Amino acid sequence: MLSKKQAKVFFLGGTFFFLIIFFGLTVDTLVYGVPEYTNADKITEEVKLGRELWDSNNCMGCHTIMGEGAYYAPELTKVYERRGPEYIKATFNFPGGWQPHGRRMVEYKFTEEEKEALVAFFEWVNHTDLNGFPPKPKYKN
Q: Comparing C-alpha atoms, which of 52, 51, 56 is closest to residue 123?
């Protein structure tokens, strides 16, 4: 059993030890991890515009991306890989709104530049390292 003084030293020493580890891992993540895993060097003005359109049209109200958002409509983190750019662009301005399985998406009437920006945003998201998220389905086409 530890004395009061030993318990205090044990607590302060352990706190200091893990505080040093925490700051080391934080610095390592910010210096090396974030730029590498997020492909920050590939964020272009087009990608930024796509992100602005994503936010301003409240796409997260229905869709999920990188694990955040609603689950009413499909998860879109890897939509670029799954469907490709032409399919993505076709869904935005589909007359009457896109409704593949009974769920209707709003008809947005985006310009060609806006559609390209959203595709660029989805492409950037697709290449972000998310440690295997979302998992790929186990079935084959």
A: 51
